[in-house]
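User: Hello! My lab partner asked me to get a predicted holo structure for this protein. The small molecule is zinc ion, SMILES included with the sequence. Please write out the structure tokens.
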Amino acid sequence: MPHSLVLNASYEPLCVVSVRRALILVLNNKATCLEESGSILHSATTEIPVPSVIRLTRFVRIPFRGQVPLTRRALFARDGGRCVYCGGAATSVDHVIPRSRGGQHTWENVVSACRRCNHVKSDRYIAELGWRMHRKPAQPSGLAWRIIGTGFRDPRWEPYLAPYGAEEYGFGRTDHQHQHQHQNRHMDRHAERHTDHSGRFADFQDHDEYGTYDQAASA
Ligand SMILES: [Zn+2]
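Assistant: Hello! Below are the structure tokens for the protein in complex with zinc ion.
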């Protein structure tokens, strides 16, 4: 089942919700549909276009969130689903400075890597191997990250995310690269269920529960 992008009344990207949740928001006039997914939901009496992008009718204040949770899915999203060393499809998490040599499990020291590079690198520094990375790993930032960090993507969302720093994370890649993203997301799904903060985003239902959403966003 596809997911829907939720924008604030101000058009800022907020979160990703299930299509079912998006439909409930639209049907209860809590949100309007900006982009349809192209598929139709049939009920006994009516047909409803499935929303791909919705915009809340009321502005929701989201508190500043300093720390971005470091999950496998979010890390793969930051690195575009590619091995930072060879550019192949990422399947594992590597510590740039090996943990055995004091490396921390932080955004600045973890990267996505393919199994082969991870194995070859083992507990060595990349300088010892003559390897290099195209850019220094860093904690993601920008409002678009709220969406990209979930690992869900849809080409229809791109125009709404581009003004908020989406391109920095490879949003708007070719279809070929998208396929890798989907593969990785699929493999990740079970492992991330317990730690993925985006799951909690999907739980808010109507404006009475925005308090829950606020707590999730600031957690
Ligand atoms: Zn590699």
